[in-house]
Design brief:
Elements (H helix, E strand, L loop, with lengths): L2 H14 L5 H13 L1 H12 L2 H22 L7 H20 L8 E2 L10 E10 L6 E5 L2 H13 L2 E2 L10 E9 L4 E10 L2 E6 L4 E5 L5 H5 L7 E2 L11 E3 L3 E7 L9 E10 L5 E3 L6 E4 L2 E3 L6 E3 L4 E9 L8 E10 L2 E10 L1
Antiparallel strand pairs: 1-4, 2-3, 2-5, 3-9, 5-6, 6-7, 7-8, 10-11, 11-12, 12-17, 13-16, 14-15, 14-18, 18-19
Helix pairs in contact: 1-2, 1-3, 1-5, 2-3, 4-5
């Protein structure tokens, strides 16, 4: 066994863990290609547990040094040998237990349950740390919609935990579909190449190093950013419920706004175990932009599992023709109250 074999075998554990310098790694690699004995030890290190490696390598180091001492006729192990052994053991322990371990995560892709042709528009939302500062842009150009759709389809994500921090930079995307439904994506950036992309509709939360937040500024410089109410942000539930009532707003099939005013559909479902009754005008109490808006409804009784819906039209100029309309609707029956909020930007 040559002197180079001794050196290579001493640093093999570090080489296996990728912890030695590039020059040392190159030297070890060339030696392993030429030395069958050292290569066999290398293969053994790859297949053994960390405990076996520490135990066997420690014994191997001791045996090699004792053999040298016998050849020289010495009866005692010198201090230098003891230090060498200690350093080797420390190096092996460090390589095996203290150095960070890189776990390979299988990449995953977003599987949209719709085609790009089904998308009528995309609402982009952004705020930096504080939701009250949120802004909104509406993407309507077909080529811009396709760009966003393809970007998300092509993202390589990882199913691993993201280290969250306070004050994240959040950019969200709401794909509004031709059937009146929507699909939300929420991206939170916690640092450079450290972000999380999640979707309640898709049922996932993935790590990503992609700079998705740049889509806000770089997609189309002509898109206008407008302030938006916190309640409209993706991540806010599209329906609100308690133990008895589930309520929500569905945008009108023809669109939220037309030449007459703001239009949407209001729905209330009884998800309790007994019937509930609403007095006149109590199933849809509307507050528009902070002011009560009179909307008449008949007295209604809902059996368990039964739902009620009504089309609501608020004309101009009661509804703002330009800007944002903030809507709050409350359904009250007895001691039970359910309230829903949403903002509509024209």
């Amino acid at each position: 066994m040559s002197k180079q074999c001794d050196i290579v075998r001493d640093i093999l554990p570090l080489y296996v863990d990728g912890a030695c310098s590039e020059a040392s790694a190159e030297m070890v690699k060339e030696h392993l290609n030429a030395c069958a004995d050292c290569n066999a030890i290398y293969q053994k290190l790859l297949s053994h547990t960390s405990e076996d490696v520490l135990h066997e390598e420690s014994e191997s180091v001791i045996m090699r040094h004792e053999a040298k001492e016998k050849q020289r006729g010495r009866k005692k192990i010198t201090i230098a040998v003891l230090v060498s052994i200690a350093l080797c053991i420390i190096a092996i322990f460090t390589a095996l237990f203290l150095l960070p371990i890189n776990i390979a995560y299988e990449p995953v892709k977003i599987d949209f349950p719709f085609e790009v042709e089904d998308v009528e528009n995309v609402e982009m939302y952004h705020y930096d740390g504080v939701p009250a500062s949120a802004e909104k842009k509406v993407v309507v150009a077909e080529n811009d919609i396709k760009t966003l759709y393809d970007k998300f389809k092509g993202l390589s994500l990882k199913d691993k935990t993201t280290e969250e921090t306070a004050g994240a930079d959040v950019t969200s995307f709401r794909f509004n579909l031709s059937d009146g439904t929507s699909y939300d994506l929420i991206y939170a950036c916690y640092g450079v190449k450290n972000g999380e992309l999640k979707s309640a509709a898709g049922g996932f939360k993935y790590f990503t190093s992609a700079d998705i937040g740049s889509y806000w500024n770089n997609l189309n410089n002509e898109l206008e950013a407008t302030p938006v109410n916190e309640s409209e942000l993706p991540g806010e539930e599209s329906t609100s419920q308690n133990d008895i009532l589930q309520i929500g707003i569905r945008k009108a099939t023809a669109g939220v706004y037309d030449e007459e005013g703001l239009k949407f559909t209001w729905s209330v479902e009884n998800i309790g175990d007994y019937s509930v009754s609403f007095d006149k005008n109590m199933i849809a109490q509307i507050v528009l932009n902070g002011e009560d808006y009179a909307f008449e409804t008949e007295a209604v009784t809902l059996e368990p599992g039964e739902a009620y819906s009504v089309d609501i039209s608020i004309p101009y100029p009661v509804a703002r023709q330009d800007g944002t309309n903030n809507v709050k609707i409350t359904a009250t029956t007895g001691d039970t109250t359910a309230t829903y909020k949403e903002s509509f930007t024209h």
